[in-house]
Specification:
InterPro entries: MctB (IPR021522). It holds the Pfam family MctB. Keywords: Coiled coil, Membrane, Transmembrane, Transmembrane helix. 55% of the residues lie in helices and 10% in strands. Strands 3-2-1-4-5-6-7 form a seven-stranded mixed β-sheet, sandwiched between helices. Strand 6, helix 8 and strand 7 form a beta-alpha-beta unit. Helix 4 crosses helix 6. The N and C termini lie far apart (134 Å). The model has no long low-confidence stretch (mean pLDDT 86).
Length: 291
Amino acid sequence: MVINLKYYVITIVAIFLAIGIGIFIGIMLDGQDLIVEQQKEIVAQLESKFDEFKIKQDSLQEKIDLLTLEKNKSEKFINTIYPELVKDKLKDLNVIVLETSEHYDYSGINDAFKKAGVRSVTNIIMKESNDEELSALAEEFNLSGDSKEDLQIKIINKFCNVLISGNDIEFIKKLKEKKIIDYTDELVGPADYIVIAGGSIDEQKSILHKIDIPMITYLKSKNIPVVAVEKLEVAYSNIDEYKKLRISTVDNVDTIMGKISMLMVVSGQEGHFGEKETAESLVPEGFIKAD
């Protein structure tokens, strides 16, 4: 019987293939055990890390709870002494708060001034107006300008002059009648101090350039003391621009601390106070005008 060479080759290949498959299966079985062990180690490490994280989280939460408790105590203490701290510090002053935007509510400022014993405080809100309304108003009061911008400045100057002089109060009433401004308290003049309550809603800060800066420029030219205030949260802060106009600023007037700072500035302190990056101090050193 003659054995074909092809038969030997196929047999040898089959043997080696069987051996290779056996080795592969053995390696796979050992590898699976290794993978299982590695997975167990990873799970153990994760559990250990989680326990550490949980301990740190609990520790941080305890610190947060303690800080919150201290904060609440501090706020309660400040709220308790606040009325006595500011009582009668600003007697005999007529103060006008000019809200240059309808988008931020500064009505709480009035109560702070009342606690400080001012003679009067009036909150005036500057409302958005169109060119036709301004042109009609200018014509009625014989105001003229070379451009719309110039005419607007003339109206602002007239408005500010009435506030600080107490004369021509009909102009203020006409502005309210035309819904260019609004106020509820009795308007008592002349104003001894002006508070500009601002904050922009657009990156271009259109209201700042259209209203705030012309007002501040005119009031400074008449040597009327001005302070600019903002809330902690505004879309775009105007504090930097106010600082360039060389007036004092308070950037957290919606807090008790900010209200006290504002009252101290009105008493005669100068500087830039609050909690934003533009602030130079947290609060003034105290009231200047004593009883």
